[in-house]
């Protein structure tokens, strides 16, 4: 059935507003008088958490049973390393906070911090990827919550298997595999983007292949020091042994696939060229692809290009060579009349116009995305990370 509400994480960090982050509930029923409006705000009990990603406590589209009722929303915090569990089953239009796990518990029990993406495991437990250790140094891996009590169980992977950095992950139970991406060193990049950091190991560049049942690291692919692989997605078909990872700084999307036995391989599938510019932090503006979404029928792939400002739709009839079939600009840094001038562009003939919706200028660029179950609507947020938002899109933060 068509979704009736959407839940959006909203942060006040770096806005000079001293209020806690909140979870907004948006009315998506076109018959409602409040259609496309915020109908409820659930403030968190603490300040400067930086709500970033969210995930359901039950159900996974790569499992056989996708009818499991989703009643809890997991909200890990990128900066505070706190975890909130929100009840969205009792009152979906007015959710309530039902549990909170403090950072000290995560630090002491797991030696992990800076929590990011949560997903449900096949056994019902919740797996949360982390970006660093409690001090902000790079440290990948995962922590586990009990799927029923939401108690913190501990680390998922064997300690000796901890990768140098982490960000996102996805898995395919039928192939006994979990694939995770790298992230960035928030101790350094957390203060803003610095081009000098590209050669200093601040940005991760590995794609990691795990044995799902043994929780061991079996393969690693180095995608280049200027890659920064972020979003990872498998095809939804539970038999499919392939998926994609988007690299934010290189503008490349790699396809990963099972080649023989339990070995995996990667190949370049999409390359978005950088633009020669003036009035920006570097002479070339890369395609900063934050999120990657695949339609439920595995026919289309969507990419959000946070810096350039476009959302791209690719057709997947040939998974090894996705074909660009749609593109729309919803903000970005290269808009006409802005401080950035594009000197050379391999794709566009002119700079796009600013986006205005209901007489309001839209600032920022497309970041996190969610596709409706019927594939007809794409929901997009415009914030990537508060400090970088303030650096690249100060008008949005205002």
Automatic annotation (TrEMBL):
Chemical reaction(s) catalysed: methanethiol + O2 + H2O = hydrogen sulfide + formaldehyde + H2O2 + H(+)
Keyword terms: Acetylation, Cytoplasm, Membrane, Nucleus, Oxidoreductase, Protein transport, Selenium, Transport
Record-level Gene Ontology MF annotations: methanethiol oxidase activity; selenium binding
Pathway the protein acts in: Organosulfur degradation
Pfam families, per the entry: SBP56
GO cellular component, one term: cytosol
Signal peptide from the UniProt entry: none
Keyword Plastid: no
Its EC number(s): 1.8.3.4
Function recorded in the entry: Catalyzes the oxidation of methanethiol, an organosulfur compound known to be produced in substantial amounts by gut bacteria. Selenium-binding protein which may be involved in the sensing of reactive xenobiotics in the cytoplasm. May be involved in intra-Golgi protein transport.
Compartments in which it is found: Nucleus; Cytoplasm, Cytosol; Membrane
Membrane-related topology note: Peripheral membrane protein
Record-stated family: Belongs to the selenium-binding protein family.
Name of this chain's protein: Methanethiol oxidase
GO BP term, example: protein transport
């Amino acid at each position: 059935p068509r979704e009736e509400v959407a839940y959006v994480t909203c942060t006040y960090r770096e806005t000079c507003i001293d209020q806690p982050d909140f979870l907004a509930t948006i009315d998506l029923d076109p018959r409602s008088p409040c259609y496309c409006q915020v109908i409820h705000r659930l403030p968190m009990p603490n300040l400067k958490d930086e709500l970033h990603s969210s995930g359901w406590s039950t159900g996974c589209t790569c499992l056989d049973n996708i009818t499991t009722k989703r009643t809890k929303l997991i909200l890990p915090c990128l900066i505070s390393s706190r975890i909130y569990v929100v009840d969205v089953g009792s009152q979906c239009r007015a959710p309530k906070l039902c549990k909170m796990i403090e950072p000290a518990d995560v630090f002491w029990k797991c030696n992990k911090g800076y929590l990011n993406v949560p997903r449900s495991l096949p056994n019902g437990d919740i797996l949360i990827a982390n970006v660093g250790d409690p001090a902000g140094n790079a440290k990948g891996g995962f922590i586990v919550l009990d799927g029923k009590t939401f108690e913190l169980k501990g680390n998922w992977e064997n300690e000796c298997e901890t990768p140098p950095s982490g960000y996102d992950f996805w898995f395919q139970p039928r192939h006994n595999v979990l694939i995770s991406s790298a992230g960035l060193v928030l101790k350094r990049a957390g203060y803003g983007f610095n081009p000098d950091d590209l050669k200093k190991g601040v940005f991760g560049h590995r794609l990691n292949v795990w044995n799902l049942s043994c929780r061991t690291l079996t393969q690693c692919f180095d995608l280049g020091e200027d890659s920064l692989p972020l979003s990872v997605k498998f095809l939804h078909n539970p038999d499919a042994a392939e998926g994609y990872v988007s690299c934010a700084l290189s503008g490349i999307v790699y396809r990963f696939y099972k080649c023989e036995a339990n070995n995996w391989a990667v190949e370049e599938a999409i390359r978005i060229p950088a633009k020669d510019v003036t009035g920006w932090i570097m002479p070339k503006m890369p395609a900063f692809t934050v999120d990657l979404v695949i339609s439920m029928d595995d026919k289309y792939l969507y990419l959000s290009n946070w810096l350039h400002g476009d959302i791209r739709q690719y057709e997947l009839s040939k998974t090894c060579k996705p074909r660009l079939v749609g593109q729309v600009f919803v903000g970005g840094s290269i808009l006409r009349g802005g401080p950035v001038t594009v000197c050379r562009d391999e794709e566009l003939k002119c700079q796009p116009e600013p986006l205005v919706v209901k007489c309001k200028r839209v600032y920022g660029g497309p970041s996190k995305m969610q596709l409706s179950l019927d594939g007809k609507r794409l929901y997009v947020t415009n914030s990537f990370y508060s400090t970088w938002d303030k650096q690249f899109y100060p008008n949005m933060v205002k």
